Predict the 3D structure of the following.
Amino acid sequence: MAKTIEKLLGNNLKWAAQKREESPEYFEGLSKGQQPLALLIGCSDSRVSPSVILGSDLGEIFTHRNIANVVSHTDLNLLSVMQYAIEVLSVEHIIVKGHYGCGGVKAALEDQAIGLIDNWLANIKDVIELYKPELDRIEDPHERFDRLVEINVMAQIQNIKHSSVYRKAMREGRKVQLHGWVYDFRTGLIKVLTAE
Ligand code: CO
């Protein structure tokens, strides 16, 4: 394990040196501030790191990640990120990015009891309950799982719309576009579900 952590720190030294070589002003530029173009709410899964799969540079995406990309109205952490992104950074796009094969969504679908996380996944169980007729109609369990991942993204977009932060932004006439994406780590590609 120690070796792995040392490898990460070694990678950081190499990366920083390479960046400085490519552009001597790179870090100085970043230290002046940030003007990200989007807030991205994604899953914590180590296989779906947004800046890696979007090929984006530092300073481009403001990020919040949690298990199964949930937007909860009692999550002070997420609401603070959203408020800061909209009101201070003037971000004009919020992306909810789910992913096929999401362990959190699967645990909720299979009604697994894992511990503390069950409380968090109750947010997804609410979604399952709401869309039960549609999900029940899908016979293939893999297909049902994939569909729930998509439905979950759309449900979290609805949750953004109902949040006090988003509603205030709309009252103030701010331009905030909502995007629903699902990433597929079997292909490396993103499926766009909605842009509204
Ligand atoms: Co996930």
